[in-house]
């Protein structure tokens, strides 16, 4: 069972309203708009939703694990539960200034599913370091720890440095750069730079000073080192990242059955327009060698996502009927495909899929919240190869 406790709704929400820090986020929640009433509590989160579908135990566990991952990665600990107001659609989001997928202020997070992993990073960082850092630092760090793979946009770095407000492209540019700073120079140096990178006018000057005084070299040298030495792709980190602990093959056959049950913490609900009421579960499979594999699904639908195996300069794009976790995968909050109709493998059909070696995630899912068993069989092309 899960590490989290799914406690009953607490009657009083007064004590968890927490003090609003002056730290700002993607967009700041308007304090006058009350948070959604608490329906779910985990070790680190008090959650209210604006939808009637049940939140599955797997989503609660995943969100809790995301908080713990960020705490461990940054070596911090939050002092109070994060108050999450979870909206089904970003169109209905209340408390954010502009039309956004999510926003935060101190311990207060307002978000749809797709942005929750990102906003939780903000909330942990903001309530621990208590710094109103520039968008390049605060958004870059949130992107770096969302869990999704990071592609470099190195040629964009100087431009991103000069911006007071970041576009989506600059989020990615910053995310890759921040990940590199942490990987190469460590977290305590990063915290030092972060704390000096205040918001405010002449943000470029402030950021240059923060970086140069922390890392002891000129901004040109730092950027040159980054551009020469960082990999083109960083593999995502944390519970939202793609693939881990592959399930075993039995000879040339990988066949497993999966119970889908919203009340169990292996099952995730999908709460996104236009996909009401789906439950999903993921499992990892290691594809041992290149070839034409046969895939069959029973009892539900499935989709296959190719993960990055490691940080790398080169990627091989998967062929037809396979998705990938890098490039266009960012900002999906876990499910790197569209609605239900995009779930690739329908039940009972034999699919022939060309695969390259590496780490994949098999997603199995079904519509509705009734418990169900779904099984997936993958057959290797050559019985002697796996
Ligand atoms: Zn953000």
Spatially, the strands of the biggest sheet line up as 1-2-3-5-4
What is the count of β-strands? Answer: 16
Bound ligands: zinc ion
Sheet having the most strands: 5 strands, mixed
Radius of gyration: 21 Å
Strand content: 15-25%
How many discrete domains? 3
What class do helices, strands and sheet pairing give? Answer: alpha+beta
Q: State the end-to-end distance.
A: 32 Å
Overview of this protein structure:
The protein is of the alpha+beta class. It folds into 3 domains: 1-130, no CATH class; 132-240, no CATH class; 253-379, Jelly Rolls (Sandwich). Helices cover 26% and strands 23% of the residues. It contains 8 helices and 16 strands. It has helices at residues 57-74, 113-129, 135-144, 157-161, 168-185, 187-196, 203-215, 219-229, and strands at residues 40-41, 45-49, 82-86, 102-105, 108-111, 150-151, 233-234, 253-260, 268-272, 275-287, 291-298, 301-306, 323-324, 351-355, 358-367, 372-379. It has a 5-stranded mixed beta sheet with strand order 1-2-3-5-4, with helices on one face. Strands 9-10-15-12-13 form a 5-stranded mixed beta sheet. β2 (45-49), α1 (57-74) and β3 form a beta-alpha-beta unit. The radius of gyration is 21 Å and the shape is globular. Mean pLDDT is 88; it is low at 1-25. Bound molecules: zinc ion. Zinc ion binds next to α2 and α3.
